[in-house]
Amino acid sequence: MKITLIMTSIVANPIVDRFQEGGPIIMSLILICLLLSIFLLITGFLNLKKNNSKTKKMIELVVDTSLLGLVIGFFGSILGVISAFDSVEAMGEADPAVFSSGLKVSLLTATFGLFTFVIARAGILLLRWIQND
Question: Rounded to whole angstroms, how far apart are CA atoms 32 and 17?
């Protein structure tokens, strides 16, 4: 009984729903960029006092992974808009529900890409600020 309740709460989670609506492949790639950025930031913080050159390398890698997440998010955004226009073209008339679902995918991937970028950039700012002290 408890397992069923746990599984129901996992499936009914709005974050998981948004992740699935945004397209699992693109959203997974952005999530990998986010997790990699966080891992590299933590590695940079742990090596802050020990190895300054490794901290600088981690900052460079976080910059790259955060930009990659942002670009993948906007790539997913373009794909969402294209799919919205494809569905309108296939139907012959603009059904607002079909068109809005494509735009929703577009906005979800772009938002998650921007979220990844902002989190990584905030970590970079904090790491550089502590490094310069």
Answer: 18
Is 0.85 topped by the overall pTM? no
pLDDT in tens, 73-100: 999 999 888 887 887 777 777 677 777 7
* Buried b / exposed e along 73-95 (16+ C-beta atoms within 10 A): bebbbebbbebbeebbeeeeeee
Can you give the residue range of the structural domain that contains 40? 23-132
Q: What SS3 state is found at 54? A: helix
Token pair of 44 as six digits: 């940079």
Does residue 2 belong to any structural domain of this protein? no
